[in-house]
Amino acid sequence: MPISLRAAALRTALERMLDEPVRLISRPGATRLYAVAPDAYRRETWRLLLDVLGSADKWGSTDASGRPEVWAEVRDES
User: Fold this and answer.
1) Could you tell me which of 78, 32, 37, 35 has the C-alpha nearest to residue 56?
2) pTM (2 decimals)?
């Protein structure tokens, strides 16, 4: 299933900023993106990351995979 332009743009921004691959999961009506969280001491990276995450419909963090990750969710375009 193709992802929306917003999800693709967010994925590109996260991958460029973090220099890490972004994992995608399609959910009913939305796409969720997961990326490894930067180290806590990288304050400028965190500031920029929060700006990027703010463009998503929802965002948060988790360590359910065994390492800290940030996630962003973008609703599918109608």
Assistant:
1) 32
2) 0.88
